[in-house]
């Protein structure tokens, strides 16, 4: 994976910091950036989006936290590169969904739009002043889309 540009990294980090603080402050599980979770077994394949949230019930015991998250992430956050085609973006969503990710956030820096989609709902673009979040995974978390791109 190529390193992110400053703009893409910043866009990925803005909502990520809020989300990670929310998860930690409420002891809901673990929030981490660029952590792998399994897509397939035998042969193993791992995904590592810009950020993941694993609810407490999916976090391995402390003595087993040296590997990847043992179950699919509950939330995957991905800041999209301007070079991604629409097909690549759709492929990312399907890749995260296959193992059971419940909510995935796609952040589009160029269009300053975000989407929060779930297996039950394909979300269209969210623009300021709309809010990102509020899915069934972390129902009480939301962040203004404008802040994502600040």
Written account of the structure:
The protein has helices at 6-25, 86-97, 145-148, and strands spanning 29-33, 37-40, 45-47, 51-55, 75-79, 103-108, 113-117, 131-133, 142-144. The chain is globular, with a radius of gyration of 15 Å. It is of the alpha+beta class. A hairpin with a 4-residue loop joins strand 6 and strand 7. The chain has a single domain, classed as tt1808, chain A, CATH 3.90.1570. The two termini are 25 Å apart. The strands form three sheets. The protein has a five-stranded mixed β-sheet, sandwiched between helices.
Give the secondary structure arrangement, pairings included.
Layout (H helix, E strand, L loop, with lengths): L5 H20 L3 E5 L3 E4 L4 E3 L3 E5 L19 E5 L6 H12 L5 E6 L4 E5 L13 E3 L8 E3 H4 L2
Parallel strand pairs: 5-6
Antiparallel strand pairs: 1-4, 2-3, 4-5, 6-7, 8-9
Named at the architecture level, the CATH assignment is Alpha-Beta Complex
How far is it from the N-terminal to the C-terminal residue, by CA?
Answer: 25 Å
Classify the beta-strand content into a percent band: 25-35%
How many beta-strand elements?
Answer: 9
List the strand order in the largest sheet: 1-4-5-6-7
CATH level-four homologous superfamily name = tt1808, chain A
Radius of gyration: 15 Å
CATH class: Alpha Beta
Order of helices and strands: HEEEEEHEEEEH
Class derived from helix and strand content:
alpha+beta
If helices are DSSP runs of H or I spanning 4 or more residues, what is the number of helices? 3
CATH topology: tt1808, chain A
Low-pLDDT ranges? none
Largest sheet composition: 5 strands, mixed
Summarize the amount of helix as a percent range.
10-25%
Mean pLDDT: 78
